[in-house]
Amino acid sequence: MAESSQIVRLASADDPRVADYTQLTDVHLRKVREPAEGLYIAESSRVLRRALAAGHRPRSFFLAEKWLEGLADVLAEHPDVPAFVGPPELLEEITGFHLHRGAMAAMHRPTPVPVAELLAGARRVAVLEDIVDHTNVGAIFRSAAALGVDAVLVTPRCGDPLYRRSIRVSMGTVFQVPWARLESWPGVVEALKRLGFTVAAMELTDDALDVDVLGARDVDRLALVLGTEGAGIAPETLDAVDLAVKIPMRPGVDSLNVAAASAVAFWELRPRD
Fold first, then answer.
1. Does the pLDDT of residue 150 top 70, yes or no?
2. Pairing relation of β-strands 124-128 and 83-86?
3. Dihedral sign computed on CA atoms, order 42, 55, 38, 80
4. Which of 18-27, 46-55, 154-163, 226-235 has the lowest mean pLDDT?
5. Pair 189, 199: CB distance under 8 Å
6. Which domains does the chain carry?
7. 100: Cα separation from own chain's centroid
8. Phi/psi at 9 (nearest 5 deg)?
9. Contact in structure between 140 and 167 (CB atoms under 8 Å)
10. Please, are residues 10 and 86 in contact by the beta-carbon 8 Å criterion?
11. Contact yes or no for 92/99 (Cβ under 8 A)
């Protein structure tokens, strides 16, 4: 039986048809190219399946021979999408790293969701202020998905939730939690307040409440701002929010990694009804 025309056997790393996958280790190139070209990379069969389940559209698939059978159902559901197949050493030459997860997909970026639509009905919102480490961004999304955060807002300078490392660390949960990138910050704080949100910033200030104290209060709608480990929350943001919160710790330790802190805070500040 003839092989489906969907399957494209790669013979050279210079094949222009796989330009989406070339040198994925070049961080600066990806940060510029992915949003500009309206694409992102879903790495591993689990992650690409989650992307497809979220309704995202594939541009192409990129996989080693041994993954063809395991992804047969995915390919059958998208018969017009090319599947580039090659030996592991050729795929590594194209991407710049060992493709040990076996399969990838270049995906069309979804249309951004308007912030007002994103917040409709949301009770718990996380705001990521200028968190540029993509590992932290992905880990925060994973905690948000697990611990009941309804939506995530990212500030203009925050890292990209659809960057390859963010997606990988999140295990694809970036597709489960609705999110949007803000056009300005911290001006949106006032808009959040008008929508009935109490806006709290995770920051060590003299008057910061312990998270469990705030969690015990009857707060219907809460937006929690998380900042970078070094600089913390910007002074202008602290001036705009309703209050600051902190995680009480033993002496000698002043902070947690922002991803770890987010998990603690999301749990403590979850709705209690």
1. yes
2. unpaired
3. positive
4. 18-27
5. yes
6. 7-108 (3.30.1330.30), 115-268 (3.40.1280.10)
7. 21
8. -80, 120
9. no
10. yes
11. yes
Token pair of 175 as six digits: 């597709």
| Residues, the chain | 273
Q: Do residues 132 and 157 touch, judged by C-beta distance below 8 A?
A: yes
Instruction: Show Cβ contacts of residue 88 under 8 Å, excluding neighbours closer than 6 positions.
Output: 64, 98, 99
SS3 251: coil
Both structure tokens of 109: 């970026």
**Residue 202, amino acid:** M
Question: 226 burial class (0-12, 13-18, 19+ CB within 10 angstroms)?
Answer: buried
Contact 236, 185 (CB under 8 A): no
pLDDT tens for residues 225-247?
A: 999 877 789 999 999 999 999 99
pTM: 0.90
Cα–Cα distance for residue pair 258/139, rounded to 1 Å: 9
| Residue 186 preceded by cis peptide, ω within 30 | yes
